[in-house]
Design brief:
With 313 residues, the chain is an alpha/beta fold. The protein has eleven helices and twelve strands.
Length: 313
């Protein structure tokens, strides 16, 4: 299991220079990937394009950008631009978005999310390969092509939690990205569902990328209390709530990776044993607390970009 790290807004308000610094720190520490989420600040794709021109030697990925706000022709153009800018180190992670935000903030429809995503990916993947599309579907119209000479299509990961979306991820994407999903749910639901769909479609074993908050501490109760307070709304989002219920978790605080170095190592081993191929660590807390988590995770990664946590046999 590879270990990557979040950069940018998900760790708190930062300047663009600080985003670049976070990625450089991750690369120097030996993390495999720096992941940026689309939140309410920096544009994740643009930030990674800028970052990648200044930070070599680390994979860069979005985890994730919401598809409804970006037409496939637009997103394909953006993604290929990032891919070219960073020297083909980019992985495009997309999702249907949190329904209440997509609808209430952008006024966009959120019905039939799996159907919409199937249509979206059926258009996006050819566009990323430089192919022309003529699509007049129920939820999407796309006519045209994206011309980005010399650029390789990036891998595409789909943020998928429910059975229908996991099936689409296995069939049409290169893997999935989860957030606030615990090891039991990953082992019993996410990994088997997407793997079955990929096998049925004749595709390679999917990449399973799991993101969780991380804090290295001797006061576990206090940290979990702060997570519960700061991420209370996230724990009520239906998409995340369903996964927390599967895990038997009261809230995000119960699936966060919290404890001393040995406890963190044990949690990461559980994720590897569940079939997770990539772990996204999102350091939680103050700058000092985040630095402590990064140092511990770097130790667990043995200081190598390619070191993995091996699933138990």
């Amino acid at each position: 299991m590879k270990i990557g790290i979040t950069v940018g807004d998900v760790r708190g308000p930062v300047t663009l220079t600080e985003v670049i610094t976070q990625a450089r720190t991750a690369a120097d520490a030996g993390f495999t990937t720096a992941w940026s989420a689309q939140a309410f600040g920096w544009d994740a794709l643009t930030a990674l394009a800028v970052t990648g021109t200044q930070v070599p030697g680390i994979e860069l990925g979005t985890a994730a950008v919401s598809a409804p706000q970006r037409h496939p022709l637009t997103l394909a153009s953006q993604a290929l631009t990032v891919q070219a800018a960073v020297g083909h180190r980019f992985t495009l992670g997309i999702g249907a978005g949190i329904a209440m935000m997509v609808q209430n903030m952008f006024g966009l429809p959120t019905d039939r999310p799996a159907y919409r995503m199937r249509e979206y990916l059926s258009v996006l993947r050819p566009l990323l390969r430089g192919e022309s599309v003529t699509h007049h579907g129920e939820t999407l119209t796309a006519v045209g092509a994206v011309n980005a000479p010399g650029t390789q299509p990036p891998p595409v990961l789909l943020s998928a939690l429910g059975p229908a979306m996991l099936g689409i991820a296995g069939e049409l994407a290169d893997g999935t990205i989860t957030w606030m999903t615990g090891p039991k749910t990953l082992a019993d639901h996410v990994v088997p569902s997407i793997s079955k769909a990929a096998l049925a479609a004749g595709r390679a074993a999917p990449r399973v990328v799991a993101g969780l908050l991380v804090s290295v501490t001797n006061d576990e109760a206090a940290i979990r209390g702060r997570v519960a307070e700061q991420f209370a709304l996230a724990g009520q989002v239906p998409e995340y709530r369903a996964m927390l219920d599967r895990e038997g978790a009261a809230g995000p605080q119960d699936v966060a990776v919290v404890g001393d170095q040995n406890a963190v190592a044990r949690h990461l081993q559980r994720l590897a044993d569940a079939g997770v191929t990539d772990f996204i660590a999102s350091p939680f807390g103050s700058t000092a607390e985040q630095d402590r988590a990064i140092a511990t995770l770097a130790d667990l990664a043995s200081g190598s970009r390619h070191t993995t946590v091996t699933p138990a046999r």
